[in-house]
Write a structure and sequence with these properties.
Blueprint lengths: L5 E8 L4 H16 L5 E9 L15 H7 L5
Parallel strand pairs: 1-2
Length: 74
């Protein structure tokens, strides 16, 4: 039996980013799709937060106010 190619995956994710969520879900689907043809040995998730820790109060921050603080227009 031929040896399957070995793949190691590292994902840098921002847990507040919707694109990171989509990427993690897409990776899970790809792992299922290729599980018979690839040896996906290790998946490492590296957390990253765009804003510095402690910026947000425990009760959260209004999303529109947050966007305005980044320079976005409402």
């Amino acid at each position: 039996m031929a040896q399957r190619p070995r793949v190691e995956v590292s994902c840098v994710i921002d847990f507040m980013c919707p694109w990171s969520y989509i990427g993690v879900k897409s990776l899970a689907l790809a792992k299922k799709q290729f599980e018979g043809s690839l040896d996906i040995a290790n998946t490492e998730y590296i957390p990253y937060e765009f804003d510095e820790p402690g910026k947000y109060p425990p009760e959260g921050t209004d999303y529109v106010d947050y966007l305005k603080s980044c320079g976005a227009r409402s």
